């Protein structure tokens, strides 16, 4: 069994659509994170789940970490520093993968339509660019739950292109955290859908 931890509803809705469209009965999506998510609490959840599941994948949208890090007072540990330490700890656990989308899941969706390494620290501008390709896109439960706007089904024919584009961008690098990344392509490898 594979447990996928997400940090927001958009990821949960997207993965629910994936699960209903693909034959992956061995995946459990665990979005039961508290409203005020502390990185340390999520780490504990990931570690605990790693004892019960064959594989644990934590998908992180990086826009909030970057934004909050810029607001950190001098002399205090920033969310970026905290996340770096936690990721290094989790990387030591063989059945745990931490996947970073910079800035957000919508960047992964955009890669279905075009290759771009253009960095945007805010998801808002990525959503705007995505709407050039998916005119009806709306980051709401109503949109994601509507069978006619099934975004996973709409994106599926272009999935191999997104995987190729995500791979080309490479892995997240703490030496350059403000670079466009969509490590979602690794989830498709883990789930053997690529």
Polypeptide structure, described:
This protein has 194 residues and is an alpha/beta fold. It has one domain. The chain contains ten helices and five strands. The chain has a five-stranded mixed sheet with strand order 2-1-3-4-5, sandwiched between helices. α3 crosses α4. The protein is globular. The mean pLDDT is 91.
Task: Offer a quick outline of the entry.
By secondary structure, the chain is an alpha/beta fold.
Key structural traits:
194 residues, alpha/beta, five-stranded mixed sheet
SSE map:
Blueprint: E1 2-6, H1 9-21, E2 27-30, H2 39-50, E3 55-61, H3 63-70, H4 79-91, E4 96-102, H5 105-110, H6 123-130, H7 141-145, H8 151-155, H9 159-169, E5 181-182, H10 184-190
Parallel strand pairs: 1-2, 1-3, 3-4
Antiparallel strand pairs: 4-5
Helix pairs in contact: 2-4, 3-4, 9-10
